[in-house]
User: Fold this.
Amino acid sequence: MSGSVPFYQKHHRHYDRGYRYQSGSRYTAGTSSSSSSTRGLDWSSPSGLDKSRLNPLPKRAKPSYLAVDKENHIIGYVVPLFRSSQDFATGYSDAEETRLRNTSSHMERRDLFTSGLEMERSEQVSRKEAMRESAERISLNKTIHEHEEHFKRMNEDSLMHAPEFVIKPRSHTVWEKQCVRLHCTVSGWPDPRVVWYKNNVAIDPLTNAGKYKIESKYSVHSLEINRCDFDDTAQYRVSAMNSKGELSAFASVVVKRFRGEVDECLPAPRHGPVSEYGINFQTHIVDKFGVSFGREGETMSLGCTVIINPPLHRYQPEVHWYRDDVLLSPSKWTHMHWSGDRATLTLTHLNKEDEGLYTLRVTTKSGYETYSAYVFVRDADAEVEGAPGAPLDVGCLDANKDYIIVTWKQPAVDGGNSILGYFVDRCEVGTNHWIQCNDTPVKFARFPVTGLVEGRSYIFRVRAVNKSGMSRPSRVSEPVAAMDPADRARMRGTSAPWTGQIIVTEEEPAEGIVPGRPRALQVTEATKNYVVLSWKPPGEKGLEGVMYYVEKCVSGTDTWQRVNTEIPVKSPRFALFDLAEGNSYCFRVRCCNSAGVGEPSDPTEATTVGDKLDTPAAPSKVVPTRNTATSVVVSWEASHDAQELVGYYIEASIVGSNIWEPCNNKPVNATRFICHGLMTGEKYVFRVRALNAAGLSHFSQESEAVEVKAAIGGGIPHASPAPPFGITVLECVRDSMVLAWKQPAFIGGADITGYFVDYRDVIDGVPGKWHEANIRAISDRAYRVTDLKENRKYQFQVRAANIAGVGIPSLPSDTFLCEEWTIAVPGPPHDLELREVRCDSMTLLWKPPVYQGRDPVNGFYIDIKEAEAPEEAWRGINTKATENTFFKVKNLKEGETYVFRVRAQNQAGVGKTSDISEAVQALTKPGTKEIVVDVDDDGNISLNFECGNLTPDSKFLWSKNYEDISDSSRLTVETKGNKSKVTFSSPGEEDIGIYSCLVSHTDGASSSYTISQEELKRLLEISHDHKFPTIPLKSDLAVEMLEKGRVRFWLQADQISANGKVDYVFNDNLVSQGEKYKMNFDKNTGVIEMIMESLTPADEGTFTFQMQDGKATNQSSLVLIGDVFKDLQKESEFQRKEWFRKQGPHFIEYLGYEVTPECCVMLKCKVGNIKKETSALWYKDGREIKADEHLGFTEGVLKLEIAQISKKDAGVYEVVLKDDRGKDTSALNLTDQGFKDLMNEVFDYIANSSTPLKITSTDEGIRLYTFVSYYNDLLPVTWHYKDSAIAFCDRLKSGVVGDQLWLQITEPTEKDMGKYAIEFSDGKGGLRRTVELSGQAYDDAFAEFKRLKAAAIAERNRARVAGGLPDVVTIQEGKALNLTCNISGDPVPEVTWLKNEKGLTSDEHCILKFESGKFASFTVTAVNTSDTGKYSILVKNKYGTESADFTLEVTEGTPDLGVTSYWTDSEGNVVFGPNTPKEKQSGITAMKMQRTKVEKTLKDHRETQKSEEEDNFIDTVTVEPKNSEEKDDVEENTKLK
Assistant:
């Protein structure tokens, strides 16, 4: 073995009591290693021999009392000091003690001035004096001890006492196949005889060989149960008896099955004589192997000697080896050998996979014997310094013909640097050629290996890499064949026909049938490297060989792409690779065979490619507990919400070294592990981290330091408590002080049995020696230290003690002056405790101050603040002082952490605040229960409390008003399992109070219940009802009407047996079954009834049903007199008539109405018992209504629809049904109030259909409007402004256009800003729609109004050619031409004439006139060919420009003196002048006027501007016209924008 020995291999010969299932043997382990050729050599021994093997009891080292200095020179003796030794020491007077104290003080003051030599000489003198005094004290103690022993021998009778359990056995819950040990410590004289019982049956180890082992040594008695099974779940009792009496103690053992798995490879033991030989075998395993340590690559042998009595020649028992309860088989890694008396297991090549708990099981015909110990395997030395350890447990997760998914576990050692990833290597079976499968390291502990040859087998290994280098390769995996799983299953089935598997196949598979859809397609695993699909074959059976095609599709698209395009797969499982990380895909599968390809399956949901598995959270609450001299039990809280958790790694470090070493190299699945190989006496801290395939978690927080040494009680996880803290002074008088302190945060796993207080004086700032204040342990956390000196300063320290011993002392307290307090106000309260913590409340308890002040304490004040808040955040809870020493704080914020303090007051004032309580979070813990009050069948009142997280040491502690219950005669406490009950003997006013229950050794499980005066009264009433029961009734006696006017009296009892009796009483007289009365009693349902055919005046009175069932009785009465009886009698008669009416055609529902969403009124009624001959006639105001399409008579419902109802529709409507069986009539009055109610319902429909009130603008002002689905002229509508009805005027108008209701505000001003509303009245609450015309809404609407107004003005006043000109004028040469058109605009526009786009001036040939600002004329006196061309008129003012043009064509011809004069009107029609001859009119061609290019350009510009403004304005202002004419104007104005 090379390299230094790690810390966990040093002193490895110490065994762990948790894994050593058998003890008490005089033989020790024999462990062999390849580095040591001689069996039994110990690495920690220089000679290789362990002398303790030859001695059954290890020798205790003799204590040395020699004192040495730094150079190892002997300078004197060291005498140990013992507590309470001054009780027996004499010879020290007060004067001598004062002299020593003064001398010490003087020496310490003189140190500032004397030389080093004088100091050393003085110290030697003081040391010699102390040694002499100690020696005298030891001599005196020895003398006293000898005297006591002599007295005991001389007076044995006086020392005899009954047995007493110093340590009682505790209950255990263990997993199946584990061992458990119950032990106890018993004192008594004479020595008691101890007997163990299981379910009150004495246990005999001889009759159950190998099952039980009983030991008794030095008053410590133990019962060991080997490899527990379910039958071992029982209550165990240990009984101790001597001549003075007998005493018993109890403990329970519960055996659980781990994850429901049963190890079938472990045969059940056989007990009793062997039928073949007629003898019993006794098996003993000796010379056992111990907890062993090895290194990767080494060879290790584990062996035990097996002695079987009686010895038989050639008899060989069954010998099995297990690792972690898994049966081992011979392989190249494990060799097993049996030599006739020795079983050996050889691990030929250690790997970390070999780490675990090894068990040897020797089975004979009479039973079995087992032995177990743990084997640790550490990493081999890395080939590169700083490289990580090798991965482990390499295996195959999934295999197919073209891929194999390899999985492994991460190593515990990363070499000091985080692991960057892993490389996977493959090797074909039969070769030695390793090929690296991935080019870049992968972090996920799973990797798909592709590029395999179908049908060949491969082995795999994994290497880890960090920045320092590559690790050694892992142990190779088992061979895996690259083939389709269906083929593998088929090969496996043919190779093992003897397994009893029956395969049912079709005799003749159906051919030519295309298979159906695959079923249950799902994504079973998804990482960034691959996605695995699985599905079920189609439901049809007997099809020809089915194979599958897999298709994928990017999420959000409909493009499906086939993945396996070449060869379909046979097995219903497939892995996809080369998917883009981060993309989402859907998948589907098709079946195929020789007949074709079937329909695709339903696609999967979108799956995002990526590693969905997160690394686990760090474990928490790591707690180490002493176990043996070289091991520590470490427990922790599991990682929260961890997925696919593999296990945990534990690391340990010596305090101060900052060097962490792994405690296990193979992950453990439990939350408890025993760390071996630790150095005795050293202090260690521990940390834990979890791992899964995604990686390792962060480390947990470091645990508290624990010193490695053997725990008491044979491995019970108890330790001495931590130091108390928070020492304060509660009272001070001249020679004594009362101290208080807080309980240690860590109590060592056992109850604190008491405290010890030490004190020392402080003179001029120099502390003196510590003195014991109390000899016996005190249970309270307050103690008065006496015999102090007045006006002297003192410091104090406190130690806590439990069954494990006395803990280390606390830090010295502050320095306190011993002087009598004279303040008038009281001292501080102390011992604050919080119970009953809930999400919104908790209860604070405290003890009153020891120092009362000048007057008695008369109340307390409680302060609160958040834990993280500053001091200024303190605030009082109660304004009035409470006299109690408890207070329930309510109205807390859930999840917040609070601290509290308390102040006491007397008549002089409020005293000093107490110490701050511990910080507690307002949170209700899961599983929290509350006290439940119960009253049993005998009337006994009890309070019940249940706790779900009990520990073996938990106790239910009941109190009244948070004080111990002194009068136990008033109640009885009973506890069974996790439930406790307090039963009141005779409840009365003395029992009023708050009852609370606290469960010890839990995380604060507690609850309270208040019994007030009212609650006590309620409980006593319930108790009385239970003692004197009555038959409970679900319903009292009632009456109901049946058909034909019959009357039914009935009630229903809640609980009544078959033996119940009922008496029927009327006016104190019993009535019986007869023609008038029909009685019925259904005992199954508890319904009791009496039926009368009719009621007569003689039936007025009181009806009573009297019931009796055993001792329970009850009765119920119903009084029917006066108006009540008359009304019932009338109802009976009416129902009787109704029954006869319904024998013919009748109305099931009388005539009524409903308003449809279209605001139509539908009159309808429902009829029954009709036939074909039945007729139905409608009448209004006595006149028959002729049938039309609105009259219906289908499915028993008659309907009459009234569309657009108005006042003329008011009247009385009536429907008459009649046939040969009779007739029935139904009428509906729709006049006056009836019509008003109908219209109100119509109005309600109209109002609810109205749209929200909106704002729009017109060129006149601002308009508010709403739309309704239907408008009725009778609809009452009111407009409001600032919640007042609007008085309409010329400026404020309202109106209706179609289904639009509007309010017009003409020329709005800022005074019109405010809240507007339209109110619809429906006779009820009405409906109001409001809108706020202010702010931005008003500004936008007002701006739009201004713009529209300006646009309207501009449109009205812009220059325009009102009457047009013809497009073309054809005229003969020599004629005169006169054209006139109308011009409008304000101001008067300027008129310009153009010819061929050039200006034209008036002359004698061409006369241009513009008269009266309205008429523009164009006259040519004698037209010639030079006048041919294009003429235009252009009118312009500041609001706009418009033009019109025409073309003049001159033809040659005979001159004509006639004048052709014409123009076009506003419609474009040609109008001839009065002087134009009729025969010439045919030569004129006129067309309608068209706009010029300038006008078209302006129009296009306005259209574009309008579109943009509408887009920008649509969210703020909507312009709506008043009517159709205004709508046209608005549209024109909009075009001009």
About this structure: DSSP finds eleven helices and 105 strands in the chain. The radius of gyration is 54 Å. The CA atoms of residues 12 and 677 lie 5 Å apart.
